[in-house]
Write a structure and sequence with these properties.
Layout lengths: L31 E7 L7 E5 L9 E10 L9 E9 L7 E5 L11 E11 L6 E10 L4 E9 L4 E6 L6 E2 L13 E9 L6 E13 L13 E2 L8 E5 L9 E8 L9 E9 L5 E12 L8 E7 L9 E7 L4 E6 L3 E4 L13 E6 L8 E2 L13 E8 L4 E14 L9 E4 L4 E8 L2 E8 L5 E6 L9 E8 L9 E7 L4 E6 L5 E8 L16 H7 L9 E9 L4 E10 L4
Parallel strand pairs: 21-33
Antiparallel strand pairs: 1-12, 2-5, 3-4, 4-12, 5-11, 6-9, 6-12, 7-8, 7-11, 8-10, 13-25, 14-17, 15-16, 16-25, 17-24, 18-22, 18-25, 19-20, 19-24, 20-23, 26-29, 27-28, 28-35, 29-34, 30-33, 30-35, 31-32, 31-34
Length: 566
């Protein structure tokens, strides 16, 4: 698959789940999160006003006090914060700001972003507010980066930290952008709605970057977004950065807790529909990632985003140590699913999107805009998951994890057959199953895939994923059969009422309840979950997937069967 040059990320805005401890990343992680300033005291920073006509005193800070966030769902905003109110006059050039104490200096070498955890509360009907992050260097030069925040929302917003992402203030002294010689930081609230009293809650200012001396061992490829380890960077590619119309606005990390067992990150972006602009998630290694042992498996992103049938709506990029970038695109194509019945860290709010792995790079295309190089699973420098063809407006994605899992049970050595005039016309195999062209005369014929290879599963059952270009609303459009060692044949079926990908979680063993349940002498819970497979206790000796009675004509299908319920 050829991935267009539009997926080259030119400008970076980074954000990741934040938390309250000083450093979240384990030593094996390249990127760590540190507290630059905790806002839990009214005298911890300077509160400044820039009133161009101080004689009238119309723009100024009012009362400043310590507040407590009591959100019942644990997030990164829980606990003490500083609440500051301010008044704004009619002059559009006047601002208020929060600045580091005088006499301090900062060595920010290795920093890749600065994160602000805050909640603006402006009296306005505008959904967004503007801030500027200012860094002043020892040579007196002043460097600014603007950012748009959502109004009336607790959020973590991120500023990319590198030369080129900050602009030198022309009215100040000339100088060099040097992260090792920062004398102050300042968060300036600009473009203030005039003639009103507003407020802002400030929780924490973080830095994120590479602060440890790299070792030589391979680093972890996978990430759990809710863990807050700080290893994931949120980026965006806005080809016209002056208008700032494509960007991650903010993200919220929900912690797992005894009364809220699920953890995930909700990330919100805005876009004006430019097809060339993207938002993405990136993880970089100081040494490298090594997926050699998983070369026959697949990368799985557990996320939730709006449907998007662009073949490159979701793109996984792997950057090798030689600089070459290799990409694989997928549709956001899930049209139906049944419920998960066992506990997972994010619950049933995310869906699996799969990128096949192959030691020789089958299924991956080298990005033409990047350097020449080789596909090498043992020497990966970074991965990046891009959301493309974003549409217009403010939208959100839910993020659970990105990891590695085993290959599909659907392989080239399975038995492929058909009845009547139905045919398998062309088949392509990867570690995430088979994609095929099929034909049917529409007179009740069927196609099937079967295997008698023993299944080494996790015990709960299977994920069956069918991607179809046709519609068959019959409740037995797809039949899944299992033969067990006692000679019994068990089957479940479902329809394909829409073109796209249908996910069926098929349980062969009843999962333990993850919440308290009442005694159930009739075992009705397990009967409901297992359906037609209730009572199956013997080992599976054969599985079969049947595409039953496809309509007349030629169609495209994909079949993926996994021995893990996901």
């Amino acid at each position: 698959m050829i991935i267009n040059n539009c997926f080259k990320v030119r400008s970076l805005i980074l954000a990741a789940a934040a938390g309250l401890s000083l450093v979240f990343a384990l030593p094996a992680h390249a990127t760590a999160l540190k507290i630059l300033q905790r806002f839990d005291s009214t005298n911890s920073v300077l509160f400044l006003q820039n009133d161009w006509n101080p004689a009238n005193g119309t723009t100024y800070w009012g009362p400043i006090a310590v507040s407590q966030s009591t959100d019942p769902v644990p997030t990164d905003f829980t606990g003490a914060n500083v609440a500051g109110s301010f008044s704004v006059g009619a002059d559009l050039w006047e601002t208020v700001s929060i600045k580091s104490p005088a006499g301090t200096q900062f060595n920010l070498q290795g920093t890749q972003e600065i994160q602000l955890v805050a909640r603006p509360g402006y009296v306005t009907d505008r959904p967004y507010v503007s801030v500027v992050l200012r860094l002043t260097m020892q040579d007196g030069s002043i460097w600014d980066q603007p950012k748009v925040l959502a109004n009336n929302v607790w959020q973590t917003a991120a500023f990319l930290v590198k030369e080129g992402s900050f602009a030198l203030a022309e009215w100040g002294p000339p100088g060099a952008f040097d992260l090792g010689k920062v004398t102050s930081w300042e968060v300036i609230l600009v473009d203030l709605p005039p003639g009103n009293n507003h407020y802002i809650n400030l929780h924490t200012l973080y830095t994120k970057g590479n602060y440890e001396t790299p070792g030589t061992a391979a680093e972890p490829f996978a990430v759990e977004f809710s863990s807050g380890d700080g290893s994931v960077l949120f980026r965006h590619a806005d080809w016209n950065p002056t208008d700032g119309d494509t960007d991650w606005l903010y993200h919220v990390r929900t912690h797992q807790h005894y009364y809220n067992p699920f953890g995930f990150v909700k990330a919100v972006y805005r876009s004006e529909g430019d097809p060339w602009e993207t938002v993405s998630l990136r993880k970089e290694a100081q040494t490298h990632f090594d997926l050699t042992a998983s070369g026959g498996g697949q990368i799985v992103a557990l996320v939730n985003a709006d449907q998007n049938f662009d073949p490159n709506a979701l793109v996984m990029s792997l950057t090798m140590q030689d600089g070459s970038v290799w990409q694989q695109g997928k549709q956001l194509d899930v049209v139906s699913k049944n419920a998960l019945s066992h506990f997972t860290p994010a619950g049933d709010i995310v869906l699996p999107y799969r990128f096949s792995l192959d030691p020789q790079g089958k299924g991956w295309a080298r990005a033409a805009w990047g350097p020449m190089g080789n596909f090498d699973l043992s020497r990966i420098k970074a991965w990046e998951l891009s959301f493309n063809n974003l549409g217009e407006g403010e939208k959100s994605v839910l993020l659970s994890s990105i990891g590695i899992m085993e290959a599909s049970l659907v392989k080239a050595d399975n038995t492929f057959g058909a009845t009547g005039q139905a045919q398998w016309l062309q088949r392509g195999f990867a570690s995430d199953g088979v994609t095929a062209d099929i034909s049917s005369d529409g007179f009740g014929n069927s196609l099937y895939i079967a295997s008698e290879t023993p299944v080494n599963g996790l015990g709960l059952g299977f994920n069956l994923e069918i991607t179809n270009s046709y519609v068959n609303s019959s409740p037995d459009a797809v039949i899944f059969k299992l033969t067990t060692s006692d000679g019994k044949v068990w089957q479940q079926s479902f329809g394909l009422p829409e073109a796209g990908r249908s996910i069926r979680r098929i349980y062969t063993s009843c999962p333990s309840p993850w919440t308290m349940v009442r005694p159930d002498p009739d075992d009705s819970r397990c009967k409901y979950i297992l359906g037609a497979f209730y009572g199956m206790s013997s080992a599976v000796t054969k599985w079969e997937v049947i595409l039953n009675r496809p309509p007349a004509g030629e169609h495209k299908v994909g079949v993926n069967l996994l021995s893990t319920v996901q």
